[in-house]
């Protein structure tokens, strides 16, 4: 099971998006779109983590992202991904990837809707 003590990484990433992209509260479609992007980034990073990519390699890749918002999201997720062990079995790797993707979506959703439950 992927254990992360807080939602800071996803909430901060989405808060950055809100502060830079919108003044009014986002619509449900905007929330779903933003959170789909967030969860997709989280999934990709955890897949690379579970398949042996180093933190340095992932951070270097993220640092080449031109869009500062996307760069920030990637770096936050990379930091959190390396708090999760790299597993040996394909089943455990897959579960870690799925859970991290879900955490990315849930954290984004909570940040954008103000739901802290």
Structure overview:
This protein is mainly alpha-helical and 117 residues long. It has one domain. It is 72% helix and 0% strand. The protein has 5 helices and no strands. The protein has helices spanning 8-21, 28-50, 55-63, 68-81, 90-113. Helix 1 crosses helix 5 (90-113). The radius of gyration is 14 Å and the shape is globular. The model has no long low-confidence stretch (mean pLDDT 83).
Taking the sheet with the most strands, its summary is: none
The gross shape turns out to be globular
Give the SSE order as H and E letters.
Answer: HHHHH
Structural class: mainly alpha
Summarize the amount of helix as a percent range: over 70%
* Spans where pLDDT lies below 50 across 5 or more residues: none
What's the helix and strand layout?
Blueprint: H1 8-21, H2 28-50, H3 55-63, H4 68-81, H5 90-113
Would you summarize the structure shown here?
This protein is 72% helix and 0% strand.
From the structure above, extract its key features.
single chain; 117 residues; mainly alpha; 72% helix
């Amino acid at each position: 099971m992927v254990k992360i003590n807080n939602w800071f990484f996803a909430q901060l990433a989405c808060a950055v998006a809100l502060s830079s992209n919108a003044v009014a509260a986002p619509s449900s479609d905007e929330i779903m779109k933003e959170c789909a992007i967030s969860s997709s980034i989280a999934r990709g990073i955890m897949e690379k983590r579970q398949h042996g990519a180093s933190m340095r390699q992932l951070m270097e890749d993220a640092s080449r992202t031109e869009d500062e918002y996307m760069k920030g999201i990637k770096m936050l997720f990379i930091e959190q991904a390396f708090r999760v062990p790299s597993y040996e079995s394909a089943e455990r790797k897959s579960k870690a990837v799925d859970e991290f993707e879900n955490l990315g979506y849930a954290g984004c959703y909570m940040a954008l809707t103000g739901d802290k439950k």
